Amino acid sequence: MLKLYIGNKNYSSWSMRPWVLMTQKGIAFDEVMVPFGNEVDGVDEAFKRTIRAVNPAGTVPALVDGDLAVWDTLAIAEYLAEQYPELHLWPREAPARARARSVVAEMHAGFTALRSRCGMNIEAHLPEQGRIIWRDNPGVRANVARISAMWTELLAEHGGPMLFGDFSIADAYYAPVCMRLRTFDLPVSQVVQDYVARVAALPGVKAWIDGALAERSFVAHDEPYRSGR
Question: Which residue windows are transmembrane per the record (predicted)?
Fold first, then answer.
């Protein structure tokens, strides 16, 4: 049985991607939660000590398959695509696969303003903070404009309901962005709002959201806008 090491569902956008991908595609795995603690001098020693026993980089997610450990979300996604070719985790057609890899790589390496200013926090609803962030951060506005244009183009080209028609790695990768747009109520078009709603309603995503809401955790260094729940 595969094992997937993850952080708190409420906060860990990186963990969400492979968990949702595997759950939505019916890939069986055992979940191993390594909860975030409150950092001392910028380091969460208990978390690092636990996860480094599996992943020397000291980060989640990490996928363990027998004696093999795979870390980094993109590496995990590619490994799963190789192990389960019949599930078509990438789009079936070569041009669409190339495009999907491009937009996934763009997410993997970019959109730093949105990710830093609007951290994933599924349980919270922060529209007032979202309005201030939107007003004061041109980088966030630029990131959301790029994401909105990308999603709109892909949905039109492939006919929806997901970015490349059927659910794929690309949708799993952008699921945490959907969570951020919801939490901070950032202004986006109706097309984007509808896609966010469809993603949130996917069984795999809904299961992650339900898990996040059930955690009842509060990790101070992941909460720049609140002092408690």
Answer: none
Please tell me the distance from the alpha carbon of residue 180 to that of residue 173, in angstroms, as a whole number: 13
Query: DSSP character for 37?
Result: -
Q: For residues 184 and 121, what is the distance between their CA atoms, to the nearest angstrom?
A: 9
SS3 assignment, position 63: strand
Rounded Cα gap, residues 131 and 111, in angstroms: 18
Q: How confident is the model over 172-199, as pLDDT tens digits?
A: 999 999 999 999 999 999 999 999 999 9
| Domains of the chain, CATH where assigned | 2-87 (3.40.30.10), 94-210 (1.20.1050.10)
Contact 37, 64 (CB under 8 A): no
Tokens of 38: 């409150």
What mean pLDDT is predicted for residues 201-209?
98
For 193, list phi and psi in degrees, rounded to 5.
-60, -40
Cα torsion angle, 138, 172, 90, 19, sign: positive
Distance CA 140, CA 229 (A): 25
pTM of the model: 0.95
Give the tens place of pLDDT for each residue, 82-134: 999 999 999 999 999 999 999 999 999 999 999 999 999 999 999 999 999 99
State the DSSP code for 31. Answer: E
For helices 73-83 and 94-109, the axis angle rounded to 10 degrees is 160
